[in-house]
Amino acid sequence: MGATGVGVLAVLLGAALGAPRASALAAVGRLPVARAPPRAMAAAPRGARAPTTAARVAAARRRAAPRMVAVETPPGGITPSDPSKPPFDTVLVANRGEIAIRICRAVHELGGRAIAIYSREDAYAKHRRTADAAYLLNPEGSGLSPVGSYLDIPRIVAAAKEMGAQAIHPGYGFLSENAKFAQACADNGLVFIGPTPQTIQEFGSKTDARKMAIEAGLPVIPGSAALADVGEAVAFAEEVGFPLMVKATMGGGGKGMRIVRDMAQLKAGVPAAISEALAAFGDGTVFLERYIERPRHVEVQVLGDGTGDVVHLYERDCSVQRRHQKVVEIAPALGLSDELRHALYADAVKIAKATKYRAAGTVEFLVDQKGRHYFIEVNPRIQVEHTITEEVTGIDLVQAQIRIAAGATLRDLGISQERIMLRGVAIQCRITTEDPCDNFRPDTGTITMYRSSAGPGIRLDGVGYTGLTISPHYDSLLTKVTARADSWGAAVSRMRRALQEFTIDGVQTNIPFLLAMMTDELFISGNVDTSYIEQRGPSLLERAKLGGPAETSGTAIKASDQTDLIAKYLAHVAVNGQPKSLGAHPGVRASVRAVPPPKLPDMLRAESAPAGWRQVLLREGPAGFARAVRAHKGLLLTDTTWRDAHQSLLATRMRTCDILKAAPATDVALRNAFSLEMWGGATYDVSMRFLREDPWDRLRALRAAAPSVPFQMLLRGANAVGYTSYPDNVVKKFCKLAVKDGIDVFRIFDSLNYLENMKLGIDAVGEAGGVIEATLCYTGDLCDPTKRKYSLEYYLNYARELVALGVHMLAVKDMAGLLKPAAAQMLVSALRAEFPDLPIHVHTHDTAGTGVASMLAAAHAGADVVDCAIDGLSGMTSQPSMGALIGATAGTALDTGISLRHTEGLNEYWEQVRQMYAPFESGQLSGSADVYLNEIPGGQYTNLLFQTRQLGLAGRWSQVKRAYTQANLLLGDVIKVTPSSKVVGDLANFMVANNLRPDELVERAADLDFPDSVLQYLRGEIGTPPGGFPEPLRTRALKGARSIVGRPGASLPPFDFDAAAKYLAARFNTAVISEEDVVSHALYPTVFDDFLNHQLKYGNVSLIPTSAFLHSLELGEAVQFIDNAGKESEVKMLGVTPPLANGICSVLLEINGEPRIVSVRDSKLAPKSGTKGEKADPIDDGSVGSPLSGVVVALKVDKGDTVEKGQPIAVMSAMKMETTVTAPITGVVERLAVSAGASIEVGDLIVYIKGGADFIASKQN
């Protein structure tokens, strides 16, 4: 990292930790030191900040320019028309943000000094650094609020005098339309750069302006005088009718405005508008005006010199508005007739001349659908959108204001109506820190990356920079983007390009919404009015959520955002590590950080390999495929490496990226294999819950990388890939999508061998077009004549029932490795004799070490296919060694058609990959014959061990294994495979944790709180076990609860997929909801919702290497990954600061060579209940959180109050916009978590409501 990068990082860190910006800059040696001008030093008042280093240097450079004059030059001696002399030596800018910067630049270009004012909350604001010196308005103890600071007339006037200013420019907003401020300037010998106090008074009041317009002969909209109270509003409404517009008499920007369509809205809207206007302008006076439906909002820019000479600078169309706040402005307006344009110009100039208007101003009109125009107001100030007029006329309005204030006339400035010409078309977009996908909620936080646009025809006026903290106290405007071109179409294209070039991270912005607008046909047509956003909003939001064409994923995250979200995830892991629920051994770190893809031997290449069995399936269909398998000479293999092998050894924690890296080589080396078992079972749940991956993405990616070998999945019958029963249409929809996305063979089983559950799975796979491999789950011991429950005849009878359902294949699933070689020979021989035409597939686990022998015995007895795993992930609780089976059968009638040399590269790859997953190893170093006693399935072994550890029973693992045997017998000696195996495991842990013997458990069953899974089993929710349920345990444990008879899911109503899709789209603010997403939600609603939340917060973490996913990056370590757009990105760890008092750590990263700071809360220091920063629970409807970051203006309820759903409970203010928070449920206020006046963040708890109508009724009774 170069010196520049280190310097920038030091500056950012200084801001993050609250260090003064100037000190931070000086500390890294980035700026030269210059002596401050004498006046600036002498004038620095008590409570003021000295000029920043940057300001001193800038000022020194300006004074070195030949055209500058001495600082001491008095205003009276200036010749305004002389461009070599500044109109004013020093101008105080009585504003903040981008307009303050704009004014400073104009003052500097005219040769003067600019003085900024600022609040403590604006300590690092950009306008401070742009000015030559800055004055602090609200030092500690002043009692001034963040907004009130900029409204304090005496303090601002005093600052101007103390800083040696001769003039004050008010900008827009704040005091710009306050006649008392203009008069105070005049009374103190200061020039107010704007209209006279009288003009401001006349035009500042919209009601007075209406009178003047009427006197001047301008058409106006019917309206009221200023309202004294709500009663006067009601009286006017009764006389005029609805709809009406409530408008603040002062100010602009949409503040204090409400459309009301009935009396109820009027009575609520007037007080709300008064409150908002008072907060924004210091004056809460409002009036009523008849509301015109769907007008265009057109304003004419005027410029006067106070002598009666006034010119217009053409018009701007400001119709694109939201909440009466302008979003996009266009100059000139499109589609107006020449007659209307000239009428607008004439009326604008007429009313300005009537007052001998001085400075820049805007005369605003509404144009109705018939082309009639109505005067609405005059804004006696510079407007936000003045930039587009400057672009299309070439006249610098701010400089003209300053020169006119110094005494110049329009003639002196060379400005006359005939010389003002239009040059092209300009558009302005306002980039704000609002989230369009969350109802335009104002966002706050620190900008971690700010990269803006540039290029021909683009102008930027803004405050954004990397490290800027967005405050909830001020307007959300970040940057104004102006695009100018020769034509409307070219201007739109240029604006679209400019917006696409922006990168702003750390806070949400409205850029996606603006981009959607730039591609909207109606907007491009230019035929828009003030209802445009209201009408097109839904479709624009859809596009905004999509993030633009060809940049979408399942959670609608743009590829350009993925790197930053992933960096946020890496920062989170650096501070908090992985959650304990992931199951990794604490302190165990993998010795291998990365593994290259496996290599194939030279003699084996994709183009020379034979066609795989999948081509047979695609050509012949499932039935023909089964016949071909049965006719095949030799033993076929299924490789379980991609699923059951890592489930059994590594708790199913294998990530997609590591499997995908091996997929192309596997597709060639195992071309003769029957299948790759790679999906379903626990992998579906775990991928979302722990790995934060989409299981459907895994399926599709692997299918694309390995197209030749059939894919096989594990289907839990009526349970699909879940742990409970689902509506039939969910199971069928799941199977249909699985086939579409790449599954070929479905190994269908039921954990209890319950035929009714099997029927649904078989029907679903058959309808979907998959290969039906019906499964007999094996338990017990056929070699032991004393174990009679699961006899040979039991399995044959069950097989007969399955075959009668029309299956393609039979499978024997030995979940625990209990199928001894002799038992394998007995069972497979009997099945082969009875079903000579059906392929037989055998699965086992090598827990006891007899797996290879059992598979060879099964093969000799007539099995067509057996399961195995690549050597590096075989043995113990996994499947038998593939290499052993290949070697043992080579050259015999059972030859697999696969060479050991073909699998060498794969084996070496998986041996290394396994080392990366060392934190998930069970610690088992050898096989364990005690499986014949405890019968723990191999796929459950490691998961049960992790569960035992998390329950604090790690030192009692031997007891748990013994208890597993006891629990199995207590439950009726069940077949143990998910979900029945989970029932047994949960009961075993329960017995050990509570020190219960089997007899004690049965005796005390009525008083015990059993695990949910046990109760679900006893209620019949997963089916009926062979031999029925155990008594008296069942009756006692259920305590009278109803049980299910028959197939559990048979009585469930069909799942509403359309409703679920709408719910997901609304909850996650995305238009990208796939059929697969809806099915995942149907199967695992909580898990899937949590997964989507994680994706939206941290991006697609499956893109990063496993080492970075599992472990925090070390100091100086960098990680590379390919983002969704196919571009390589790099994130480097530079350091982590200690947590601040609020628990926030600053993580210093370098992202693609650019320094970045990510703020992360240390979870160990998270706020406790009842403390500031306590978060609302998003799942609990009674936990009411703040919808935005801001200030609590008022609490409408108190503890113990009864509230109705929809009742206002609090009023929030953010960026001068008030929002009412309503009760989401009916209930009683149990707790207030904040007080009025508190500053809180989005999601912070406001109140807790103990809820529900039943609760209210119980309280009343």
From TrEMBL:
EC number, as in UniProt: 6.4.1.1
Keywords, comma-separated and alphabetical: ATP-binding, Biotin, Gluconeogenesis, Ligase, Metal-binding, Multifunctional enzyme, Nucleotide-binding, Signal
SMART domains, alphabetized: Biotin_carb_C
Segments forming domain ATP-grasp: 210-406
Entry's Gene Ontology BP terms: gluconeogenesis
Signal peptide residue numbers: 1-18
CC terms in the record's Gene Ontology section: cytoplasm
Highest taxon of source: Eukaryota
Region (Disordered): 1162-1183
Residues annotated as domain Pyruvate carboxyltransferase: 635-904
Cofactor: biotin
Residue ranges of every copy of the Biotin carboxylation domain listed in the record: 87-538
Molecular functions (GO terms): ATP binding; metal ion binding; pyruvate carboxylase activity
Pathway terms, separated by semicolons: Carbohydrate biosynthesis; gluconeogenesis
Compositionally biased intervals (Basic and acidic residues): 1162-1178
Domain Lipoyl-binding: 1172-1250
Record Pfam families: Biotin_carb_C (PF02785), Biotin_carb_N (PF00289), Biotin_lipoyl (PF00364), CPSase_L_D2 (PF02786), HMGL-like (PF00682), PYC_OADA (PF02436)
NCBIfam families cross-referenced by the UniProt entry: PRK09282.1 (NF006761), PRK12999.1 (NF009554), pyruv_carbox (TIGR01235)
Protein name: pyruvate carboxylase
